[in-house]
């Protein structure tokens, strides 16, 4: 017997899994791009979110391959939990990085402000009034009236109250 006859079902299922993964990636990419155009998000932010979604899709594809090729469920869970434990221990001191990336994804889809908007961050100790210059995976770049550039972590934007300052309230030379 040959490899192809012995594993015909697995090869066929792998082909279907590859097709479904590619189809899912294409459809999700189109949906995110359409949403980004509708909300006037910048291209580099859209690409960043698409990369996160592709990473998640690839992880699901690999899990699907394990299932198709008959890797025991207990072995999958043992492997995934072991890898997650190692990564968790290695990144314990860097938990804020994961928090900021997650916050960046949430900001992309649900917050009403975008690049170019003027905002006021309601922080009791350090209130900030500035224009949003850029929104990245880990932080937001702000520019104050005085020309000061502030890098503000995404996770803090979700924790603080934020007001969008309407354009008619701004001074003409506010951000020159």
SSE topology sketch:
Layout: H1 3-6, H2 8-39, H3 43-68, H4 73-90, H5 95-110, E1 118-122, E2 128-135, E3 139-144, E4 149-153, H6 154-159, E5 161-165
Antiparallel strand pairs: 1-2, 1-5, 2-3, 3-4
Helix pairs in contact: 2-3
Describe the structure.
This protein has 176 residues and is α+β, with helices and mostly antiparallel strands. Helices cover 58% and strands 16% of the residues. The protein has six helices and five strands; from the N terminus they run H-H-H-H-H-E-E-E-E-H-E. Strands 4-3-2-1-5 form a five-stranded antiparallel sheet. Strand 3 (139-144) and strand 4 form a beta hairpin. The longest helix has 32 residues, at 8-39. It is elongated, with a radius of gyration of 22 Å. The termini are far apart. The relative contact order is 0.10. The model has no long low-confidence stretch (mean pLDDT 81).
In short:
This protein is α+β, with helices and mostly antiparallel strands and 176 residues long. It has 6 helices and 5 strands, in the order H-H-H-H-H-E-E-E-E-H-E. A hairpin with a 5-residue loop joins strand 1 and strand 2.
């Amino acid at each position: 017997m040959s490899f192809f006859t012995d594993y015909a079902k697995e090869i066929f299922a792998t082909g279907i899994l590859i097709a479904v993964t590619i189809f899912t990636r294409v459809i999700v990419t189109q949906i995110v791009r359409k949403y980004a155009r509708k909300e006037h998000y910048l291209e580099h932010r859209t690409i960043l979110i698409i990369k996160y979604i592709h990473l998640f899709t690839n992880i699901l594809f690999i899990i699907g391959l394990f299932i198709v090729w008959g890797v025991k469920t207990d072995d999958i869970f043992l492997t995934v939990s072991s890898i997650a434990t190692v990564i968790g221990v290695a990144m314990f001191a860097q938990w804020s990085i994961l928090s900021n990336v997650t916050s960046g994804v949430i900001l992309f889809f649900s917050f009403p402000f975008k690049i170019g908007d003027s905002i006021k961050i309601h922080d009791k100790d350090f209130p900030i009034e500035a224009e949003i210059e850029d929104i990245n995976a880990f932080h937001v770049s702000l520019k104050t009236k005085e020309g000061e550039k502030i890098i503000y972590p995404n996770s803090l934007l979700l924790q603080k109250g934020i007001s969008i300052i309407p354009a008619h309230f701004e001074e003409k030379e506010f951000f020159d």
